[in-house]
Structures are given as structure tokens and as C-alpha cells.
Amino acid sequence: MSTMTLLEAANKAMQHEMANDERVVVFGEDVGLKGGVFGTTQGLQNEFGDDRCFDTPLSECGILGTAVGMALYGLRPIAEIQFLDFIYPGFDQIVSEAAKMRYRSGGEYTCPMVIRSPYGGGIRGGHYHSQSSEAYFCHTPGLKVVIPSTPADTKGLLIASIRDEDPVMFLEPKRIYRTAKGEVPDGEHVVPLGKGRVVREGSDCTIVAYGAMVPLVEKAALEAEKQGKSMEIIDPRSLVPLDEELILESVKKTGRCVIVHEAPRTCGYGGEIAAIIAEKAIEYLEGPIARVTGFDTPFPYALENLYMPDVRRVMSGIAKTFNW
Amino acid sequence: MTSKALSIIENDGRAAKGKDPNLSDEELRRIYEIMVMTRVMDDKGLVLQRRGGIGFYLQSTGQEASHIGSAYAMLDSDWFFPAYRQPGILLLRGVPLDDIVNEWFGNDGDTSKGRQMPVHYSFRSVNFVSISSPIGTQLSQAAGAAMGAQMRGDDTVFMTYCGDGGTSSNDFHAGLNFAGVYKAPVVFVVENNQWAISVPFQKQTAAETIAAKAQAYGMPGIRVDGNDVLAVYRASKEAVDRARKGEGPTLIETVTYRMGSHSSSDDADRYRDKKEWEAWGKRDPILRFQKYLQQKGLWDAEFETEVQTRSKQEINDAVKRAELRSLPAPESMFDDVFMNQTPQIKEQREDFLALEGEADEAQGEFPL
pTM for this one? Predict the structure, then answer.
């Protein structure tokens, strides 16, 4: 075990897999010489050479299109998109190409590749360095969507994503890149995709949260405990595939559920979780499901602290499941 | 950069002095047979669509020299990232006609399992990468695959295609730019057929030629008469050889003409000048090649009858066999989304199958 940040854990996962499998290559804007604008890829070019970790021209379309081509040819590309907000010029390559290749070719061609990208707010980055657009990708059959919230999960999930036979969007919560610190197993550490994590056991209400919202709802759970309410926290870790069982089991036990994400509410992933609970566990509910989310507005630069869910809003959401 | 296109077969059928690629008689006849077969197949595809046998068809008529001539320069181990107007490559690579025709029908013999509309082929066995409809996406993919081969030290060469419309796409810029920067072993063949559905070449770009664009990406740009199979082959062979030697990518513009409509859903007579179409018809790539073969003593009326009859017979037989097949199994809809079905897909599949079973029992009723 070593103690490290979430960012360092991402770096260690890539280093581990590059050493383990020569098909793994890492590329994107500024990932080589500089080691990434956040430093996630630092040291990889030095250790593995500029054939395996390299800078590209400034084109998300090109980064993702070439990644698809490399994956088709048998490599295991890890393409970094500097900020998730910049991904749209390459959106076509993700949703129309990588995600559909296996299906449209009848299983002949596959795209085992990882698209890594920092996402989410709380770093004073305005619209274009702050958004949480995971829902676009979850809505595309053929894509897996993974979001870690701890250093250990970051390493384990990223290694699993690199080894996966299908394309994976690996979204890194940049707000907690350096603030999330924890023990990470050395060497081989794999966390399978599709298995959620019980962050905290509780009995009165379930909170489902992912990414940077996990440490936030942990704080809210402590507040709730002071008021005699016991919170269970579930981190699904991958949105596609989703560990429905874990969420349903928890909600059946607690009878209540609050879903927290920083993305806008309408058609956000919280709506999917709420619908699953309504379809499969409505008879266990003792109160309405509550969603605590970003607002249906573009991401506001100066007011980001008010836009993003905070402890106060999570508490308010919890209260709604009890008082109605 | 000259706008003059490389041309080899002259009006009298002879090769321009010093330019004949000197293919063997056997090779020349094979290329001709594949060009004829491609046209016969395209004719059949459109007729079949008109009769309601298949839902859609898209012809390559007029562009046989352009795509077959270029593809002929590749080795079997090389890869194609095609657009949707290069069906002759499949014939060149020996894909059985049954496999091609089954794809049109999307039946249970379709190797792509009926997942795509007609002519969107995928044949991994011959390194022919799955075709998509969005324009240009294959260009950056080809560059990426070529970069991959380079990293692994393989000497594979990649050839990718688009039309004049495709040169306006994001991926054209991205693909050529990446290929240029990394000196990737890829040949970009732009079949300039003058029309992107109803939009003419002049509205696609203000550049005089497409080949001229190569300069901005730091690679050679070659303009070739796309209806002259020998010229296309010669330019492509040089480009493929350069790529294999590690000398980087090439952009080839084949100047040709889309003799048919864009697809079975389009009617080019509504926007195209008949005179333009007639003029290009006189430059038919198959007739042009025929003249060359004739003056070399490799073509006569008897040979033509034999090739035509055999081609028609083979395609008709393949269609008859395809018509007898069934749709893919309903539950196959849920396969190949991922390597393993997610719990969500499994559940949807089970619900679907349960309802299918009920429908049989209920005989059209919808009990609540």
C-alpha cells in the first residue's frame, strides 16, 4: 500500500499497464513532454519513450479518430481529452464509431480503448473547464462510462478499463484530483466495472453519488448522523454498466433515496437511477426520491459555488425524503 | 502543383509512351473482369431495390477504375478504410458474392448480422474495415491504424477513401494532418466524382484541385485521371511503395464522375445537367480499358460476352440464394453491443423474449 492522490493513482494505473502490455499507448494534447496539464501522465514518456506516450496536434477529432484506428489495428490506446468540455469535435468518433464498431460489424471489429478526461466543476474554470456531461455518453449503447471517487478506485477501475474489450469513457473528477488522498494497493489492483461500492453503511436513507460528490455526501452524512439519521452511501463507480442490485438492495433496506450529481438535472443520470428505483422498488419507498443536482443552466463561472451541490443542498434533499 | 491529371490510356487505346505499368496479361484481364463484375453487381443492386427486394442501394458506376485501380496496388496484408462507393475492392479480395448479397438483404447469412443498411460492408477476413455513413470518419481512423502499424514495426500499408464532399469533413483535416505529422503509412484516395449528393465540387471547395490540399499537410498530392485504371494504379502503386518504405502518406485525387444518382433514394436528373452526364459517359472507364486491352489483343467480343454472361449468372444465382434466407434471429439484436451483455441488456432481452412468447399465445390480443 502507498498513500497517494487520485491524480497519482491514475498515473500509476497507466504506468502499470504500459509496463504490463506493450499494446498500451497514451496520447493527447500536452501529455508527453509536459506530462499533462494536470500532470496525470508525468514520467510516462521518460519511462516508455515517445512511441508509447506522445503529444498530438490540437484536435480532439484527430485524437479520437486515430485512437479508433489504433484500437482496430490491435493496440490499446488511452486517449486523453484535456477537458471533457473540449470533447465535442471528436464526439462523432465516440458515439458513431467506437461505440458502434462491434455491433455494426457483427462482432468482427472492436474498439478496446480508453478515453480519459477530467470533468466537473469547482476549480474556477467557467463553462469550458467545468461541465459534467456524462449523461451524453451513458445514452450511447456500446460505451462504458466509469467515474472513480477515491485513489484506490481510480487505479483499480482504470486498469480494468484499459483491459476491457470495449470502449470506456473514464471521467476523472478534477476537483478532487489532489484533495482525495488514500491508500492504494501497490502493483496489480483491479476493480471490476459494473460493481458499485458501499461507501458508508446506514439504515434510514440511501444517498447515491459519484465522482467529486462522494466526499461531499460523506460530510452531509456526518451532519445527518448528528440529527439522528443514519445514511447509507452508494458509489456506483461505473454508470454503464450500472450495479442496479447494489442500489436496489440499499433502497429496499432504507426506504429512502437521495441522488446527487453536479450535472444539470433534466435527463441527468439521476433520473435514470430514480426511474429504476420507481420501477423495481416502489413498494419499499417511505418517501419521495430526491435529486440534488446542478441546475438546468450553463455552468456559471462566478457563482459556481452556488451552482454546485453543497452540504446544505444535500441536507435539504435528505429532508425532502423524510418530510412530505 | 499542376492541375493536369496523370493519364495513361490514350484515345486510340495505346498507353502513353513510357507510362505503361506493364501489368501481365493475366493481371490486366483480371482487373477488367472485376470492373465488369462490379458494374453488373451495381446494376443488379439497383434493380433489386426498385423491385422492393432490398431497402436501399448505392452504386459505384463510373468509378470502377478509380477504386479498383487504386486497390490493386495493395498487398493482401494491407488494410482498407473504405467509404461506401468501393465495392469492387471486395471482389478484388475474393469476398464471395453470397456474402456481399446477404449484406444487402441483412439476412441470417450476413456476416454483419443485419446490423447495417445495404452496402455498409465489413469484412475483417480481407482487412476491409466496417463502413459507416457519416462522411470522412474513416480518414482519421486510417491515419491512427497506420500510426499503430508504425509503432509496432509492421510494414502494413493503409488505404482510405472519400469523395470530394468528404474533403470538407473534420476528419479529412484531422486524418491528413496526423498522417503528415507522424509520417504514417497511409494513402488517402479522394474520388472526386464531382457531386456530393446534389452539391457540385465547386461548392465544396474554392481550391482549384483537391490534390493541392496535400501541400498544406506536408505530403505529395497527385491528381490522376480517375477513369483511367492504369493511371490510377500507377499513381497508387508509387504511393503505396513510398508508404511501405517509411516515406509517409500521399493524397491522390482521382478525377472521375458519379454516373448514377447518389443512391437509390436520390434522383440526379433533378439537379444535374444531362449534357454533363453524357459527356462523362463517353469517358466510361470500362470502355476505355477495353480499348487498351483490345489493342493488346486481350479483348474481343467473344471475351466480352463470356465475362458479361458469367457475371450476370453469378450475381443472379447469389440473389436467388439470398432471397431464400430468413431474417437474423430476433434475440441477436442484443448481441455485440459489448463483449458481454450488461445486466440492463440481459433484462431487456428477457423482457423482449417473454413478450414475443406471449404474443404467439395471445394471437394478436393485448390483455391487461
Answer: 0.97
